[in-house]
Amino acid sequence: MEKTLYEKAEKAINQAFETAKHSVKVVSEKAGEAAQITRLLIEKATLEHRVSRKFAQLGSRTYEKAVRKGEKQLSFNDPDVQSLIEETKQLDIELAQVEGDLERERAKKH
User: Fold this and answer.
1) I need a surface site. Which of 15, 28, 42, 99 has the fewest CB within 10 A?
2) CB distance 91 to 54 below 8 Å
């Protein structure tokens, strides 16, 4: 079975995430950031990674239907598409919460 576009891109997405997560740790340690801020930065990077993966899955789903299956229109009623959209919306809410927490923690330091 031929790999989907998402499956082909997933390795690069995961490698970029691991690099970003490592960079956050190194930069935070060098900047002397508190453990709570470092934890929030890693949580933020994790959520951003999960959002990127959902966008990639959604794009892959669209590509598969449009190019490989020849469908002219993508239905937003497609259960897989709806699920990906809902999951991405939830991650977006979580990410906004973490960003708010991060701003508050940084404000405490100044």
Assistant:
1) 15
2) yes
pLDDT band at 90 (very low <50, low <70, confident <90, very high): very high
Rounded to two decimals, what is the model's pTM?
0.68
- Residue partners of 18: CB distance under 8 A and separation at least 6: none
**Could you tell me if 46 and 38 are in contact, meaning their C-beta atoms sit under 8 angstroms apart?**
no
What is the number of structural domains in the chain?
1
Please tell me the predicted confidence (pLDDT) of residue 72: 72
Q: Which amino acid is located at 59 in the chain?
A: G
32, pLDDT greater than 70:
no
**Using CA atoms in the order 99, 86, 62, 77, what is the torsion angle rounded to 10 degrees?**
-160
DSSP 8-state assignment for residue 33: -
Residue span of the structural domain in which 21 resides = 5-109
Q: Which two tokens stand for residue 92?
A: 């977006």
Tokens read off for 16: 């970029």
**Rounded Cα gap, residues 48 and 91, in angstroms:** 8
